[in-house]
Amino acid sequence: MDKNINYTLVGAFMIVLISAIVLAIIWLSSGLSLTHFKTYIIYMQESVSGLSIDSPIEFNGVDVGTVSDIELDALNPKRVKVELNIHSSTPVTQGTVATLNTRGFTGITYVALKDVSLDLRPLVTPKGELYPVIKTGPSLFLRIDTALQQLSSNLHDVTQSIQLVLDKENQLAIKKILNNMQSITATWASNDNQILPMAYRALSNFNEASRNLAGVSAELQQNPSMLIRGKTAAPLGPGETR
Questions:
Q1: Selected residue with higher pLDDT from 19 and 7
Q2: Whole-model pTM above 0.70?
Q3: Quick one: angle between helices 168-190 and 192-222, nearest 10?
Q4: Looking at the domain assignment, is residue 143 inside a domain?
Q5: In this predicted model, what pLDDT tens digit does every residue of 38-72 receive, in sequence order?
Q6: Which domain holds residue 201?
Q7: Contact 31/53 with Cβ under 8 angstroms?
Q8: Alpha-carbon dihedral of residues 129, 131, 135, 140, nearest 10 degrees?
Q9: What's the domain count of the chain?
Q10: Do 97 and 185 fall into the same domain?
């Protein structure tokens, strides 16, 4: 009877031991840990080339999770739906924005999270979604591509403007203006011996008129009635009669 009990205990112990070993192997092979994760969704409006399942997620440069799924949005194929597993302790809020980024030397594409506002309210799951949705922003490559397209468009507009100015009619008009300016310059140069004396005489006359006007103004200030009665005759000198 004792032998049967011993065999039972040994068998139970072996079962428990084997089960523990199997669980440990599964744990280590699947990367299980005691860290708790929360699932979030992002919708990218651009290509996610280079991003793959298990790509890292960083919050201000700190690893906080991995990408768990990537697929086209069933409702809008222009968008890419990316599922994120993020440490539950990560402060994902209403002000958090996700962008695609690439590590310079390795070229690894990852999801970068960053708070861009002071709205620290926690995310809630919107209607029709299974998980909270993090807002997204354009990646550096998309911003560069947009800037290059804008630059190309501006250069095209400038080229069109130059071509418009330099069309045949405008070329003739510009040529006529230049010819007129050349004619005026030539006339001035050929008559400078007459124009300069005339200018000096006009300036002299202007100065004299200014002095006379100043004199009249001074007399009016001393005798305003002269506007009505006229200028009073100067007093007679010794021996003079009217």
A1: 19
A2: no
A3: 80
A4: no
A5: 999 999 988 888 888 999 999 998 999 999 999 99
A6: 167-220
A7: no
A8: -110
A9: 2
A10: no
